[in-house]
Amino acid sequence: MTPVDLVKYVKTNEARIYGFDETTRARKTRAVNRVLMGTYLKITFEEGDYYFAITAGPDGWIRKSDTTDQMGLKVFYLDVGQGDGSLLEVGPFRILIDGGPGANMKNYLTHWQYTYLLRVNQKVHIDAIYISHFDSDHYSGLIDVLENVNFTFGTVYHNGIGKFVGKDRPDKYNTTLGETRKEGGKEFLKTCFNTLDDMLALQEEGFLQDEFTRFVFALKNARSQQRLQAVKRLRRGDIIPDTVVDGKPFQIQVLGPVCTDLDDFPYFKDESHTVNGHSLVLKITFGTCTFLFGGDLNTDSEDYLLDTYKDQPGILEVDVAKSCHHGASEFTVPFMAAVNPYATVISSGDNETYSHPRADAIGCAGRYSKGERPLVFSTELARSVSKEKIIFGMINLRCNGESIYMAQMKEANTPSDIWDSYLVK
């Protein structure tokens, strides 16, 4: 048995960790833990074909053939209640896509995912935050994260549509999203912003909604404390980042919002349909695998996107899709058919009036899938509830650039049998 000091990652999904004798550290034959592909391993000893690994859950011996030097892509679809919030880790990058409505995102980051950094007084750096749109169930939970001085940030990306008060706003702001214009019998939203300075200029007018104002101040304070580098609006055609990780292409391509030649937005029915319909639509590629995050798209915007990309067949198709608008009924069958994933993740919560996810959304997510056994995951169903507490759920995705695995914890489990796990591709 030779002491070593190595960092490895799990190569084989649900790799077995074998127990050991507390006195001699000799390997036992019984597995005491199973760990997902991409899980961090601190290697302290090696013997023959095995490493001794310190990892999540019980430590122990793991076969060397079950380890690798490359982490791959990890996506954590968090149970943030009625809302959306996801964490991505790939290579050196940490990325948030939305943050939910409450404290779940902050609690997960500070009490679980990054405690190994925080307990030794290291800062947690988030390279990018993508906010699909400024509905509270997608961004409010990020305010506490931005205000936490133990976190630093690269760029906060957004769709450029803010929220104004419902009453006593200037006449020029004829909607709660700002000013519109009409042309050729159609209506367009003119008011938008790009940088943090643009947001502050709108805030100084004094007519932004309270929650959005809190968010703007959180950005301002983070920048003044030199914890935030930039704020930037995204639109169709942007690709950020566009790089290589572990020898494989990694990019986030912006498919929406699709703006006009005047850089404003088609107005869909009302304020709600417009801000939802112009959510950031992100297509993520890692190696040969693809993933879609579509915010709160609705029927109007899905038709608009299908028309926009009618000459680019296949551009919307991915391997795994985050269901738009929490599994609401307001979707189009042609859009679902165009996305055509192997697996769909629905993020929704209890105690809300929307009854998300709707039965037709669940059914169509399965029907319009390219898998023989379609996979539909729900953060709400992954949750465990007892009289004493709520254990919020999470859907785990792991990808090495060629294969994709997805898993959720079993409600009644032991470390050696913890995962309900599936090969997606």
Automatic annotation (TrEMBL):
InterPro entries given in the database record: Competence_DNA_uptake, RibonucZ/Hydroxyglut_hydro
Record SUPFAM superfamilies: Metallo-hydrolase/oxidoreductase
Superkingdom, natural source: Bacteria
Protein name as catalogued: MBL fold metallo-hydrolase
